[in-house]
Design brief:
Among the domains are: about 120 residues, Immunoglobulin-like; about 140 residues, Sandwich (Immunoglobulin-like). Helix content is about 25%, strand content about 30%. The chain is built from 7 helices and 21 strands. Strands 1, 4, 5, 7, 8, 9 and 10 form a 7-stranded mixed sheet that branches. Strands 13, 14, 16, 17 and 18 form a 5-stranded antiparallel sheet that branches. It has a 4-stranded mixed sheet with strand order 11-12-15-19, with no helix packed on it.
């Protein structure tokens, strides 16, 4: 081709190259103006709804967030699946100030019982630097190509189901932490019995401090018996027939210093409100694992009586241990009341029998409650 011929074709060639570039870099960033602000104790998400043509008869909107951009790509699972609405409020305590998070919103379809993410917004990089002050940046996502398997895919194929547990979130306090996660929407009930939450002081989980198993549908749990100002690691997985599988990413957290339970400070009063929340609980008692079993109607906790070693010269450690013992006593008392209530009219008969003979008189050994009370008195004397 001569130089003059190329020159005459140059505008068309450049137009073709430009068109190819636009087509090859287009992302499914159809949803506009995703914004996130803190409103009282909630985090409020808002976005512009799609037109009827772009919405394309979707089943609703889905909101995704995480600690990394890879957590909000199209092949991940949404935290919340909604109807055709353009706002969402979630508990703000899960999002710390001066910490970076990534947010995104999609439309989704329900196909064969699975939620399939479709058109998405750009990624919102978000950090709250001060009260009602935010740093934000829009990032063009680099979504992987999703090839949905047909319903005829063999159930024996390992690729038929994604076994990844996903992200676990932690709200850490002084001697306990609340953890939460998302329900795995792409697995059938027959695929797993429930979730398992493992806790360790070792990032490699060579030594498991405690494991809590929950039934399907549970998305929150509480880990008690932690030591203030201590590093821990937690991860989630699925369990079926006493086997754990599909472990998710490890989340590290560090408990804060001891907060006095006197109600005199804002922190103390806020902590009291958090402690009242009813979650499935694992009490690791700082090294002695408490067994928690959860069914659809009751949660039973048996408390180990092994005494963890503490430095009695460390007042924070002593206070934390006192608080842990008081909670153990409260748990035992609550369980005792529940069991007595189930016995109904037979309680009075047993009371008349046991009133004359205490456990220490009949066996020569102290009961768990008596031993806890005795330890509590000794620790208080050291303050």
């Amino acid at each position: 081709m001569s130089h003059s011929s190329f020159t005459s074709l140059k505008p068309f060639f450049l137009l073709f190259i430009a068109s190819f570039f636009v087509l090859s870099t287009t992302h499914a960033a159809d949803i506009q103006n995703l914004k996130v602000v803190r409103s009282d104790s909630q985090l409020l998400f808002t976005w512009d709804g799609l037109s009827d043509a772009d919405y394309d008869n979707a089943d609703g909107y889905a909101v995704v967030w995480g600690d990394f951009t890879s957590d909000v790509l199209k092949n991940k699972y949404a935290k919340q699946y909604l109807n055709n609405v353009t706002s969402l409020s979630v508990r703000g305590a899960e999002f710390k100030r001066r910490t970076t998070y990534y947010f995104r919103v999609f439309t989704y379809d329900i196909e064969d019982g699975r939620n399939i993410l479709k058109s998405g917004s750009q990624i919102l990089k978000w950090k709250e630097t001060d009260y009602d002050v935010y740093e934000t940046e829009s990032i063009v996502p680099n979504d992987p190509v999703i090839i949905n398997s047909s319903s005829s895919t063999s159930s024996n194929s390992d690729d038929a189901i994604d076994w990844d547990f996903g992200v676990i979130r932690v709200l850490e306090l002084d001697n306990f932490a609340d953890v939460s996660w998302s329900v795995h929407t792409r697995m059938a009930k027959s695929d797993y019995d429930g979730f398992a939450i493992e806790v360790s002081k070792d990032s490699s989980f060579n030594e498991i401090t405690g494991t809590l198993k929950t039934e399907r549908g549970k998305i929150r749990a509480r880990i008690e018996g932690l030591t203030p100002n201590t590093q821990y690691y937690v991860r989630g997985s699925f369990h079926k027939d006493d086997t754990l599988f599909g472990a998710g990413e490890t989340k590290d957290f560090k408990t804060i210093g001891t907060i006095a339970r006197d109600g005199k400070s804002i922190a103390s009063r806020n902590l009291a409100k958090i402690e009242k929340r009813k979650y499935v609980t694992l009490n690791i008692s700082d090294g002695s694992t408490s067994a928690s079993s959860n069914t659809s109607s009751t949660t039973t906790t048996s408390t180990s009586t092994n005494t963890p070693s503490i430095n009695t010269n460390d007042k924070d450690a002593v206070r934390a241990r006192i608080t842990a013992i008081e909670k153990q006593i409260s748990t035992l008392q609550s369980e005792l009341r529940t069991l007595k209530a189930k016995l109904g009219g037979s309680v009075s008969t047993r009371r008349s029998t046991t009133a004359r003979t205490t456990p220490s008189q009949s066996t020569g050994r102290l009961s768990i409650r008596e031993r806890l009370a005795e330890r509590l008195a000794k620790l208080r004397a050291k303050q």
